[in-house]
Amino acid sequence: MAFAPTAFIAGMTLSLSLIMAIGPQNAHVLRMGLRRQHLWLTVLSCAAADIVLISLGVLGLAKLGGLSDKLLGALVGAGVLFLTVYGWQAFQRFLRPDTAPVPTAMPADGTTARDSTTTARQAIASALAFSFLNPHAWLDTAVLIGTASLAYGQGHTTFGLGAATGSVVWFLLLGSVAFWLGRRLNSLRLWRLLDGVVALMMWGTATTLVAGLF
What we know:
Layout: H1 5-19, H2 24-35, H3 39-61, H4 69-95, H5 120-132, H6 135-149, H7 156-182, H8 188-211
Helix pairs in contact: 1-6, 1-7, 2-3, 2-7, 2-8, 3-5, 3-6, 3-7, 4-8, 6-7
């Protein structure tokens, strides 16, 4: 496979432009970073999921004509359910901020005394759910990037590598920003605001998904 710099840069640029919007996945990474709970495990899981979706798009999904109506419908249903439940949980934390753990001083290993509220397995499961149960992620990451890669002919694989690199760079940057903020922000008012925004974002996305079916 010959490396095509133009295709690589184009893939990275498209990937970054699609992922930079603050959607459910990015909001989840920010929240885990601010809470300092399994941040880098979450970042790794989100980046790995994006690489899988990009690979599916570049290596086959686009050539097959995208997602079938039944598969897309199943994804929408699962995504709406997940986002609705997660939004409700965030709304409950907004109503009862005293139940939302506020991080204390961070030990050298990067965890907190309250890390027991979220296990490593739960952190991975949540990150993968935000990645794979979001139909927009499939349409934007897999279908759109996969389709765009076809314009580069034999360089489509290089285009996909560029897109995957863009995703990894973004999540590392987002995680670093969240980590930096999490070491400096320790306000109950901030947590209420964050949970309120997350709840509205999750329910808004779920509503948009349902509206798209009609």
